[in-house]
Every structure is written in structure tokens, then in C-alpha cells.
Amino acid sequence: MQDRPRRLRRTPALRALTREVRLHPEQFIHPIFVHEQEGETPIATMPGVSRHSIAGAVQQARTALALGIPSVILFGIPDHKDALGTQAYADDGIIQRATRAIKAEVPGVTVITDTCLCEYTDHGHCGPLCEIPHVQGPDAWTVDNDPTLDLLARTAVSQARAGADVVAPSTMMDGMVGAIRAALDEAGFTHTPIMSYAVKYASAYYGPFRDAAGSTPSVGNRATYQMDPAGGHREALREARLDVQQGADTLMVKPALAYLDVLKVLRDEFDLPVIAYNVSGEYSLIKAAAQLGFMDERRTVLETLTSIRRAGADAIITYHALDAARWLREDRA
Questions:
Q1: Domains of the chain (ranges plus CATH)?
Q2: Which among 55, 91, 98, 328 is placed 20 to 30 Å from 113, CA to CA?
Q3: Which parts are annotated binding residues for 5-aminolevulinate?
Q4: Does the bond joining 255 to the residue before it have cis omega, within 30 degrees of 0?
């Protein structure tokens, strides 16, 4: 007897009946850039994405929830930047004010706050800088790890105080999860989860984000603290294991598409939820190809997000979230 797998692909109903991987808006996290100005400013390198005022961020959260997307992640662009990124942990900082506004006006949305300093420092790095003795070139300047931990802890507590449901440290500092967990617990926020950017690579795919957030480094090299793309699975497992030991509640792989193998390894190794960040460069590549008529945007986006889910992601941070949710709604109608 000949096997005929095609029997189950014959109609849309049969294909839907036998799918192993499903996409739903509940699995998406919608990123929102919030700035101090009124109105919105389109981001040239990310077609369809803008920087929003606080009022605009509230509307973005409201739109996401109406489409069935229950979670947003906030990235702040302050007017004032300095060497220590002080606006990141100011109680009246842009993210703190945006969080309060969203929680007051759209209480059903889960607000995740990016807990980092790169958008707030005048040099574009994720913490205060130090010079490495006897090193020349772009690697001579790096983030001073241990002083940064205190600033990250202060940032997380400030965000939790403002109403953040989840804090998401993204600096790749050694010990960041433990420092934040201790500070949150001491401040009475034992219930606040930590979504750790556990496995974050020094990737070329972040280019449009740096344009959006104004966080391109003026000196130094993020490769001194973000992971080497050729580092392999052992390094990824080591980083993730350390974050689990320090109290991370979820693990993240960033970027998603170039590291689906790493995502699969983490999914197989750990029983925590695993989040994938479908980053700005991945988004912009599809948008540019679609605008040129080279690819069908809808089909490409949904196939891409399905591949991330198939690799093991429980949820996906993606700039496609609103469009994808609309398309999935149309498919169900």
C-alpha cells in the first residue's frame, strides 16, 4: 500500500484540522516606542512603525487589545540623555509615565518594560563605560558591569512602582537577573516577573532599532557584552542557565530568525516559557521586499511567525503584531 500524505492537504479544512503549529494574537507582544514629543514620528528604517507620544502609546495598547493581543513592551526615548542614563530610573521618566497612563486607561493590557540604559545614555551603551587596560581599537571601551547592576535594579524597581506587569532586562550584564530580583523583592515587588533577554547576540539585525531609539554607540563595541553569533549552543545554554538560577521567570532569544536553532535548544532544555524577539532588521527586510513587490507580505509574515512558533517560542515580540492579528482575524472570519 502506498502512503499518501497528500490526502490530508486536499482542502483548507483538512489542512487546518491537522496543523501542529498554530498562531494566535495572544502569542504576540506588540512593541511601542514612546517619546517626549506630541504626536507620532514615523521611523524611516521601519516602514509602518512610529515613535508615539504617551497618548499615542495608550492608543496603540488599546488597538492591540482590541485585536486580541494582550501584551505590549515599551521602549522609551527621552529628551535628555547622559553618561549614566538617569532618565531610565527616574520616577517621572518617559517609560514610567507611559506605563501609568496605559495601566490607567487600558487596564486589561499587560505592560512589559524594557529594562535597559542604551536609550538613555549619551554614548548609546547599556550602562556606564570603562576603559579596558592594554586593549586597542573598538573593544577598548565597554560597559562597566557591576556598577550597571545597581542602575538596572533601580530601573526595574522604578518601572514596577509605575505599574509594570513584567520587567525585561536586556543588557547582557553578568548577574543582572539576580540583582534585579533582589531589588524587586526588597522593594515589595515579589510578584513582578522578570523576562530575561537571556540569549542576546551582537547582531547586525538591530540596525533599524538603533535608528528608532537613538541608541547607536558613539564609542566602543557591543560585542564585548552581547553574545558572539558564532558562539554556539554551549554558550547559549550557559547564559540561560545562569539566568534561571538567578530567578528569571521567562527566557528570551534575540534575534529570532537567525537563531531558531538556539531557540529550539532552549525549548528542549528548560521548562520556563521561552520568548523570541522578531527584531527590527527582520521586520524591515520583509517590509522592504514587500514594498518592492518581491514578496507577498501577508504570507511571508505569517510563515515567518509560524516558523518561530514551530522552533519552540511560547510568545513572540514582533513589529508585525498588529498586522498579523488582523490577518489571522480575517482568516477566522
A1: 24-252 (3.20.20.70)
A2: 328
A3: 210, 222, 280, 319
A4: yes
